[in-house]
Here is the input.
Amino acid sequence: MKDDDCAPEKKGITADDLKTAPMDWRFPATNQAKHCYYSYNEFHKCAAEKGEHDKDCRKYARYYRSLCPGHWIEKWNEERANGTFPGRY
Amino acid sequence: MSLKNTWLFPIAYCDAAEPWQLGFQDAATPMMQGIIDLHHDIFFFLIIILIFVLWMLVRALWHFHYKRNPIPERVVHGTTIEIIWTIFPSIILMFIAIPSFALLYSMDEVVDPTITIKAIGHQRYWTYEYSDYNSSDEQSLTFDSYMIPEDDLELGQLRLLEVDNRVVVPAKTHLRMIITSADVLHSWAVPSLGVKCDAVPGRLNQTSIFIKREGVYYGQCSELCGTNHAFMPIVVEAVSLDDYVSWVSNKLD
Here is the structure.
């Protein structure tokens, strides 16, 4: 992952940017909902420990954004803002 | 298909349903090729069994007609025939089961994908999210795909199948489709790609696709989802990797 990936002005992509959350053997089932939820939580855990812009955390952010539907993320972010999200972080 | 071959034998693939179509659409993924091959394999056994059973039936009706054969046979048990008609069908079932399971499990196989595309079913349209290139939670490449109504069709467009925004994907690339729904059950199905995956609210069903050739593939919602179930088709446009990259870049701008 390149450092300028988080820069908001960067719009276009190149063939190198074609990558996504890899197959994870902890989530071998067809239903990837847990994979998505795990990545989302892992990101916030990581962000709480190392800060949002850490390289490892950005990896999890990429994973959950790839896997989770937008309206799920929106809902969870809202819950986090209201303090009603069931996760620890 | 190489250029040489297409020049000699121009080929138009069947990637959409045709009126009165009986057979399959042309395969564009190894999975669909496997499904077609399995179908043909099973039909070999099916035809043999059909002919054998019909022959037995007709033969029995003919030879044991009450006029031709007034005194019925009194055979009530035959060990040999019992063994034969138990073992033989088991062997046939095995010959059908082996390729069938091989295909079934190879469909579940997930190769490390290059691209994840999310298809979210809504009453009555599909939303597609390409979020691999997001740098925030704001969805940057998301669009709805509505059917083009009959009155707005242009010449050559397919009735009830054409959509305003197609799913553009690269050919010869491993894709992960994540299929879910925001309201009721739907099903994301494209016959040429050999994909039919239910969209269930709360579940993220994953399926992988590897499209072998560039083309436009048509499919329809395949789980009864209400009044306009027939009017939420799916169109997948497979392009070269370079074209895909420039398409995404244009969309992100």
Notes: Confidence is low (pLDDT under 50) at residues 1-10 of chain A. The first helix of chain A runs from residue 33 to 50. Chain A touches chain B at residues 5-8, 10-15, 17-23, 28, 30-33, 35-36, 62, 65-71, 73-74, 77 (CB under 8 Å). Residues 39 and 63 of chain A are 6 Å apart (CA to CA).
